[in-house]
Amino acid sequence: MAGFRALPSVDQVLLSDMGRTLIDRHGRTAVTGALRLRLDAARAAIRDGADGGVEAARLPHLLAADLAVAAQTRLRPMLNLTGTVLHTNLGRAILADAAIAAASAAMAAPLALEFDLDTGGRGQRDDHLRGLLRELTGAEDATIVNNNAAAVLIALNTFGQGRQAIVSRGELIEIGGAFRMPDIMARAGARLVEVGTTNRTHPRDYQDAITPDTGLILKVHTSNYRIEGFTAEVPAPQLARIAQDAGVVLLNDLGAGSLVDLAAYGLKREPTVAEAVAEGADLVTFSGDKLLGGPQAGFVVGRRDLIARINGNPMKRALRLDKIRISALEATLRLYRDPDRLAERLPVLRYLSRPQADIAVQATRLAPQVAALLPDFAVTATDCASQIGSGSLPTDTIPSAGLRLTGAGGDAPDRLAARLRGLPCPVVGHIRDGALILDLRTLDRDDDLLDALRA
């Protein structure tokens, strides 16, 4: 049985054809480091009784595999078959082709980001989006930061620092990652004043709470939960009148912030940004990467004088967007100028409005092909239910269809889910009633799933 002498030296491997190929692909430093680790493991195996010749024969394959794994990013593309269209943990909205092209162009060349081509002087990066946002929302002005929490934060800090911010107890929500609205308000320097009760808040609650020290009233759209039954809230137009009479700012945080009426696409209505502006809110905040269908961003639209004060806040520079996201957002917003073709061009709306019948046909077509690639599991077409995600319409689902995968043993769904997550292009579904369900609502092409499974 061969011993340590059967193992090649580091130089022998690096100077071999395989070594040169790996160096070309991964670099000498990475190959040398991985090789030393593999040789140490081989020597340990030989000390435990392994054959040195066998270890030497395995070395090239193991080294290549180690380097391939190390070079593979954990941010690699994957298939979201969870049934949640806007999945926060999976990056939320898929961008439109126009936005992807715009972002790619921005990465490849200098842009007139803060340069006025007409005058040759310095420009403002928000100017690339301001006009579009005014057009689409009806607001006097707009400013942009890196997400909606930041939009709320800078607005609260600008108008509520060291002053009182009034909010209904029923709207003190917790968003993703255990971040709570009261905590954001505290970081903004505002003093929280809770009014009403969890389920009922009346106009007099706000009116009684207003003092000379009140900086603003905050209204939060509770998009990530619902309270039903004996409830009451003050409608936004009435709250706007209360704020106006008192001379304080009304900030309406819409969260997901749709620019279009979702009912036109067969979904339950959500308040639109234009409606919130028309109802009299001084400022409206909303997200870019949820129902709007763009990259991560936070918008503040509203009165021109108030937007100017926000832009003068030193926080603005810390929260601003880069050229890549601004370019992608501009391309996304331009799609809304053509509402007749919006659903076919904007992936979020295309997925949400996709008919269940079409998805069911796809599931029936794919079931036998997927079964052939997973012989240890039974695969059948099934009805299922999708949801929008990211806190939008949390109690409402959309009829969908997908694949139901079952196998032997109670842990079969978990075993299969782990295998699919480990693919070069991971496939993620959800487990329900002893089966792994792959909801096909967001699967554009059959081959995307089949190619992933073949790997």
Automatic annotation (TrEMBL):
Keywords: Cytoplasm, Protein biosynthesis, Pyridoxal phosphate, Selenium, Transferase. Pfam families: Se-cys_synth_N, SelA. Its cofactor is pyridoxal 5'-phosphate. GO terms for biological process: conversion of seryl-tRNAsec to selenocys-tRNAsec; selenocysteine incorporation. It catalyses: L-seryl-tRNA(Sec) + selenophosphate + H(+) = L-selenocysteinyl-tRNA(Sec) + phosphate. It is found in: Cytoplasm. This is L-seryl-tRNA(Sec) selenium transferase. GO terms for molecular function: L-seryl-tRNA(Sec) selenium transferase activity. One of its GO terms (cellular component) is cytoplasm. Converts seryl-tRNA(Sec) to selenocysteinyl-tRNA(Sec) required for selenoprotein biosynthesis. Residues 4-43 form the L-seryl-tRNA selenium transferase N-terminal domain. InterPro entries: PyrdxlP-dep_Trfase, PyrdxlP-dep_Trfase_major, SelA-like, SelA_trans, SelA_trans_N_dom. Its EC number is 2.9.1.1.
